[in-house]
Design brief:
The protein has 454 residues and is of the alpha/beta class. 17% of the residues lie in helices and 33% in strands. It has two domains: 3-221, Spore Coat Polysaccharide Biosynthesis Protein SpsA, Chain A; 249-435, Hexapeptide repeat proteins (UDP N-Acetylglucosamine Acyltransferase, domain 1, 3 Solenoid). It is built from eight helices and 35 strands. The protein has a 21-stranded parallel beta sheet that branches. A seven-stranded mixed beta sheet has the order 5-4-1-6-10-7-11, with helices on both faces. Bound molecules: uridine-diphosphate-N-acetylglucosamine and magnesium ion.
């Protein structure tokens, strides 16, 4: 069966108090709408139609890389029924249609598969149970338990308001039938809106059986209307991710204190201390240890490497058996081979460090090629920028760069060079020699301390 998905995303999201359209707010590293679209793809949707309104151009631009999405503008927001009706011309008339909300991000593919199966040519709606269904639509059943209709909270009698089964907003129906029902929906209700929920009574009137399916987990159908609800769902999602990591054998000091905003892949016996953030694609090899309060964004770390507390790594590749941090910063293009040590307050940018290279304290290594077993002393700076252009520094194997040296690029420090502490090196050095550039130290035996005037 062909499946087409309609995602309703035209709402303004006033209660977010934000200039960003609600569906573009981020949860676990991607927008609410991106979660929903990913789930639609997971279901194998043949077509995904997104109904947008407020700031539609901005929403569309955020998905420019997904050229197969079909966008429909709903100018005036006349209700969920109107929104779906606007989308129907873009839907394959022979398909089953699944309606989702762009602001209900965590709905699971498994629950939706059950919904689609339950429809089987008729209408299936997803419902949930709550002590107080608040402003949600109530599912009205007859004495035999058969679904009769959905009544919106604002149109409900007190007895109907007491109904605990509420409509989540998701339904599946064959496109042709859905179109026919929508054509008959009227706006004669408390909100003067075209309610999608009215299709239930119309289906019943047509003698079509209406099935209700519940989500596997209650939070799957929770929507985002406020920052508070967004924050709550973020914790739900993060807990899910943490549990999945634990399940796969990753050691987490505290599953409530990790944030994964992308994809985190871990080898065996990885351990992660508290308050770490992983963004984009992060790959950790076997036995990698991450100390507390680290941030890793689009990074790969090979086996047996340890990242100590408070380190920030971004668009970098770290080899095996390295020691990074505490307080290290690896910026884009940092490529570290095995057994490299990067210590506290060392910044590495767009540089390759060969096996065994070390910069243990307070250094800046930018636009550099650093050879094997090079030792970069405390306070060393590669002066890579002349104010207009960036230049490279090459430090060949086995060099020793004394503390507080400044290396003015473009520059080549030849193999086995020894640079005296405090030197400013602006010319290439010969191999295997001590190069030092600083004023000679003098002491004056005739010197007398100044005397205080009366
Ligand atoms: C709707 C249902 C209600 C259900 C609830 C679940 C109707 C009439 N009511 O309530 O039974 O319990 O969802 O959350 O369907 N939207 C548009 N265009 C519109 C109106 C809404 O795209 O003209 C989108 C919104 O962006 C949102 C979704 O549809 O993603 C639901 O709209 P919302 O106003 O939140 O739901 P209600 O109508 O209050
Ligand atoms: Mg509404």
């Amino acid at each position: 069966m062909t499946l087409n998905v309609i995602v309703l995303a035209a709402g303004e999201g006033k209660r977010m108090h934000s200039n960003t359209p609600k569906v573009l707010h981020s949860l676990a590293g991607r927008s609410l709408l991106a979660h929903v679209i990913a789930t639609a793809r997971e279901l194998g949707a043949d077509r995904i139609v997104v109904v947008h309104g407020h700031q539609g151009a901005r929403v569309r631009a955020a998905f420019a890389d997904q050229g197969d999405l079909v966008w429909v503008e709903q100018g005036e927001l006349l209700g969920t029924g109107h929104a779906v009706q606007r989308a129907m011309p873009q839907v394959d008339p022979a398909a089953d249609v699944l309606v989702l909300y762009g602001d209900v991000p965590l709905i699971g593919a498994a629950s939706l598969r059950r919904l689609a199966q339950a429809a089987s040519g008729g209408l299936a709606i997803m419902s949930a149970i709550a002590e107080d269904a608040a402003n949600y639509g109530r599912i009205v059943r007859d004495a035999g338990g058969a679904i009769r209709r959905i009544v919106e909270a604002r149109d409900a009698t007190p007895a109907e308001r007491a109904i605990r089964e509420w409509y989540t907003g998701f339904l599946v129906a064959p496109a042709a039938r859905l179109s026919a029902w929508l054509a008959r929906v009227k706006d004669e209700n408390a909100q003067k809106e075209y309610y999608l929920t009215d299709v239930v009574a119309l289906a019943v009137a047509d003698g079509v059986a209406v099935q209700a399916v519940q989500p596997a987990r209650a939070w799957e159908v929770e929507g985002v209307n406020s920052r508070r609800e967004l924050a709550a769902l973020e914790r739900v999602r993060q807990r899910e991710i943490a549990d999945a990591l634990l399940e796969r054998g990753v050691g987490l000091a505290d599953p409530a204190r990790i944030d994964v905003r992308g994809a985190l892949a871990c080898g065996r016996d990885v351990s992660i201390d508290v308050n770490c953030v992983f963004e984009g694609e992060v790959r950790l090899g076997e036995r990698v240890r991450i100390g507390p309060n680290c941030v890793l964004r689009n990074v790969s770390v090979a086996d047996d490497t340890e990242i100590h507390a408070f380190s920030l790594l971004e668009d970098a590749a770290v080899g095996a058996r390295c020691r990074i941090g505490p307080y290290a910063r690896l910026r884009p293009g940092a490529e570290l081979a095995e057994e490299v040590h990067i210590g506290n307050f060392v910044e590495v940018k767009n540089s390759r460090l060969a096996p065994g290279a070390k910069a243990n304290h307070l250094a800046y290594v930018g636009d550099s090629d650093v050879g094997r077993r090079v030792n970069i002393g405390a306070g060393v700076i590669t002066c890579n920028y002349d104010g207009v252009n960036k230049h490279r520094t090459v430090i060949e194997d086995e060099c020793f760069i004394g503390s507080d040296a400044t290396l003015v690029a473009p520059l080549r420090i030849a193999r086995g060079s020894y640079i005296g502490a405090g030197s400013t090196i602006a010319k290439d050095t010969p191999p295997g020699q001590l190069t030092v550039s600083r004023a000679r130290q003098v002491s004056l035996p005739s010197w007398k301390p100044p005397k205080r005037k009366d």
